[in-house]
């Protein structure tokens, strides 16, 4: 067999790469059933298919086969009212008010390459590596709706990419009331569910639970993916851990309202679904129109959660993040926010730029407070003109100073929002999202711009493009600091009001697509009060995300650990901040703060003008060392070794692709007098090589590090960090 392919034989569709197989089957040339999603198979003969058994109360899909009921069959999609009473993935309503959805198989097509969903972020094609896409067509005769299920398999990847498209081939309109991107049915075998939850300043907290009978449902109806429940879920074997065990995971490439549901039914079947959240959603399709769902990425791992993460990391690095930033050096930045908050000015920033350059920083970011008459959060969003009281000469002096000192300048925008106290609101009060007869609710003293409207999108594009041409900064921090409460638009007729949330996302994606295409050399960083919209959809346009406003080096351990399940270090921004920490008041040693930030895209968030000579030298040395290690940190492989969710310790490792150099960081929340040492097993190095520890000169074989582990002892005091650098030698 080829290294990857899609084959159709004896009614079976077999998608496979060198690492995974995905098999579905036609039953009586009508119904599409799921058969297998696990390690690569060279052949499949239906050994896992149970004999059909007629059940009381089960509706027969085929009167000639009374034992065949969709209630018991593993499916690739499901509609309500077809005898399958589990969570459905697709729901349609006809013009006469009746539901539709009795889909039957029509045909298939296998094409080279990847399908790129129109107007949505997606997995990109990759030069030099192949992909194939299977499109299966099914039709509902009563409504004329055509359903196309798409599956893509990628060369040298354990990922399968799924999406769905609904086309109205009938004579009247139909309404899509639910359109999930993927449905997966499998027998329950004791699997546990791993998800993440969080809130502002405490994102990516892991939750692992047993799956009882019934439905577990989580997601977002906030108009953003949100920190509460990111669009990710994993089913794992009970014994699965970081280094071993089976894991099946999915993630949605979408930034708006989403839903993940896990159902264990009375027959011990598991159903996993994900897609756009159905609450408040509907989409009208006139004859000839289509609706495309976001893509869902499915990952199988037989090497535990680190194996799963490696698939996501490689896939997103190669095929999701903006290509112009692949392998490029990311600048070490100094952000003005915790240094100045809203109190920014030319007088304050010029000496900061000079000192930042002298210390070795590569970029200074001017955060909130530079525009309109903005002195707090109560005004000026939408008025993206320079505040002439704070910057009497515009931002040109800052750009000139940065250029003269060999450093770059960045800027902050919150372009999706509008302040009630703004010139834009006074000129266009109808541009704020709202219901027609109610005053919109404020969040952080601001309203949401109605990005469902083309003229509003054009305003944002034209205003920001004009600014970026006038002031050629090299970095943009794109923020979004509230969720939606009034999903209404004067531009939407009554039969399309349920389209607001998704049309908003399509409007945002259009803005980001065009803006990043116009300014490909600008590094755009995603932010939403930190990690409030850290998802693959935003990562399609922006290669890195400020993953939390919480810069506390203890809290950041769990935040960055959790984010790493899906995203590599190159996608995660982390800053060294001042003590006492602005969010928690903790006094954490500089070495620990530096270690956390050095495990990702590193920057600083403190007033460098207040540093003592000793602190100044400490920062300079840290920046210089990070520059030496940056290629490994951002381009190597990241592995978790000890979880902060399980106790007092946290540890991870970064290793280059040739497994010749590794950087290991270990953290303790507090000093434990009874803990003589912690032993960390490291199964990710070359077992045939010797590794020299840089500080002590001690030598260890990769084999003993894998099986015996490495003992580390923390110094006295709370919040310590240990850094261990291992360099490979050739064994004689």
Name its key features.
732 residues; alpha+beta; Beta-galactosidase, Chain A, domain 5; TIM Barrel; Immunoglobulin-like; 3 domains; ten-stranded antiparallel beta sheet; eight-stranded parallel β-barrel; 12 helices; 39 strands; 18% helix; globular
Description:
There is one protein chain. Helix 3 (346-359) packs parallel to helix 4 and helix 6 runs parallel beside helix 7 (500-518). The chain is α+β, with helices and mostly antiparallel strands and 732 residues long. The model has no long low-confidence stretch (mean pLDDT 96). Strands 7, 8, 9, 10, 12, 13, 15, 16, 20 and 21 form a ten-stranded antiparallel β-sheet that branches. An eight-stranded parallel beta barrel has the order 22-23-24-27-28-29-30-31, surrounded by four helices. Strands 5, 6, 11, 14, 17, 18 and 19 form a seven-stranded antiparallel β-sheet that branches. Helices cover 18% and strands 32% of the residues. Strand 36 and strand 37 form a beta hairpin. It folds into three domains: 5-320, alpha-galactosidase from lactobacil brevis (Beta-galactosidase, Chain A, domain 5), CATH 2.70.98.60; 328-635, Aldolase class I (TIM Barrel, Alpha-Beta Barrel), CATH 3.20.20; 642-730, Immunoglobulin-like (Sandwich).
- General shape: globular
CATH class descriptor of the largest domain = Mainly Beta
For CATH, the homologous superfamily of the largest domain is named as: alpha-galactosidase from lactobacil brevis
- CATH topology (level 3) name of the largest domain: Beta-galactosidase, Chain A, domain 5
Average pLDDT value?
Answer: 96
Second-tier CATH architecture of the largest domain: Distorted Sandwich
Number of E-type strands: 39
> Roughly how many Å apart are the termini?
39 Å
Regarding quaternary structure, what we see is single chain
Count of the separate structural domains: 3
């Amino acid at each position: 067999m080829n290294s990857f392919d899609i084959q159709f034989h004896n009614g079976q569709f077999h998608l496979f790469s060198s690492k995974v197989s995905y098999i579905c089957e036609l039953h009586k040339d009508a119904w599409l059933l799921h058969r297998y999603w696990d390690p690569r198979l060279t052949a499949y003969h239906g050994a896992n298919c149970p004999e059909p058994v007629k059940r009381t109360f089960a509706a027969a899909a085929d009167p000639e086969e009374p034992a065949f009921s969709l209630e018991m069959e593993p499916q690739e999609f499901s509609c309500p009212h077809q005898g399958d009473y589990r969570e459905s993935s697709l729901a349609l309503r006809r013009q006469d008010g009746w539901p539709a959805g009795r889909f039957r198989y029509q045909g298939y097509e296998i094409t080279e390459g990847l399908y790129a969903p129109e107007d949505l972020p997606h997995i990109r094609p990759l030069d030099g590596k192949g992909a194939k896409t299977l499109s299966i067509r099914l039709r509902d005769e009563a409504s004329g709706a055509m359903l196309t299920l798409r599956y893509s398999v990628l060369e040298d990847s354990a990922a399968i990419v799924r999406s769905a498209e609904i086309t109205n081939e009938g004579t009247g309109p139909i309404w899509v009331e639910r359109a999930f991107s993927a449905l997966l049915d499998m027998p329950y075998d004791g699997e546990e569910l791993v998800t993440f939850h969080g809130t502002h300043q405490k994102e990516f907290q892991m939750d692992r639970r047993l799956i009882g009978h019934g439905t577990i449902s989580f997601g977002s109806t906030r108009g953003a993916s949100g920190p509460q429940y990111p669009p990710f879920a994993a089913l794992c074997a009970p014994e699965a851990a970081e280094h071993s065990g089976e894991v099946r995971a999915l993630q949605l490439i979408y930034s708006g309202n989403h839903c993940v549901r896990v159902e264990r039914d009375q027959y011990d079947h598991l159903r996993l679904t994900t897609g756009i959240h159905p609450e408040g959603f509907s989409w009208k399709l006139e004859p000839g129109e289509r609706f495309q769902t976001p893509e869902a990425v499915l990952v199988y791992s037989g090497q535990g959660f680190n194996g799963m993460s490696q698939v996501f990391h490689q896939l997103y690095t190669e095929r999701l993040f903006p290509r112009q930033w692949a392998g490029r050096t990311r600048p070490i930045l100094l952000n003005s926010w915790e240094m100045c908050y809203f109190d920014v000015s030319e007088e304050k920033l010029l000496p900061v730029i000079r000192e930042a350059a002298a210390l070795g920083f590569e970029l200074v970011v001017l955060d909130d407070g530079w525009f309109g008459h903005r002195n707090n959060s109560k005004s000026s969003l939408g008025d993206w003109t320079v505040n002439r009281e704070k910057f009497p000469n515009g931002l040109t002096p800052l750009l000139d100073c940065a250029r003269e000192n060999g450093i770059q300048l960045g800027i902050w925008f919150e372009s999706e929002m509008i302040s009630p106290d703004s010139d834009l609101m006074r000129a266009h009060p109808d541009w704020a999202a709202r219901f027609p007869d109610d005053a919109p609710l404020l969040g952080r003293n601001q309203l949401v711009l109605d990005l469902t409207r083309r003229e509003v999108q054009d305003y944002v594009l034209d205003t920001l493009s004009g600014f970026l041409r006038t002031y050629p900064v090299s970095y943009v921090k794109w923020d979004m600091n509230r969720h939606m409460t009034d999903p209404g638009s004067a531009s939407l007729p009554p039969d399309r009001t349920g389209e607001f949330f998704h049309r908003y996302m399509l409007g945002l994606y259009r803005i980001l697509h065009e803006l990043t295409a116009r300014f490909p050399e600008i590094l755009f960083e995603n932010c939403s009060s930190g990690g409030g919209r850290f998802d693959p959809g935003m990562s399609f346009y922006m290669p890195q995300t400020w993953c939390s406003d919480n810069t506390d080096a203890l809290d950041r351990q769990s935040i960055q650990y959790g984010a790493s399940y899906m995203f590599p270090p190159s996608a995660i921004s982390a800053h060294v901040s001042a003590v006492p920490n602005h969010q928690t008041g903790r006094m954490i040693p500089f070495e620990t703060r530096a270690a956390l930030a050095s495990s990702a895209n590193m920057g600083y968030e403190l007033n460098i003008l207040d540093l003592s000579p000793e602190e100044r030298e400490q920062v300079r040395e840290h920046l210089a060392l990070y520059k030496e290690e940056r290629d490994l940190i951002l381009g190597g492989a990241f592995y978790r070794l000890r979880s902060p969710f399980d106790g007092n310790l946290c540890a991870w490792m970064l290793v280059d692709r040739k497994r010749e150099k590794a950087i290991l960081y270990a953290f303790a929340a507090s000093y434990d007098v009874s803990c003589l040492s912690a032993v960390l097993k490291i199964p990710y190095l070359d077992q045939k090589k010797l590794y020299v520890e840089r500080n002590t000169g001690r030598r260890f074989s990769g084999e003993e590090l894998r099986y015996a582990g490495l003992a580390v002892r923390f110094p006295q005091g709370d919040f310590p960090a240990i850094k261990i650098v291992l360099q490979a030698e050739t064994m004689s």
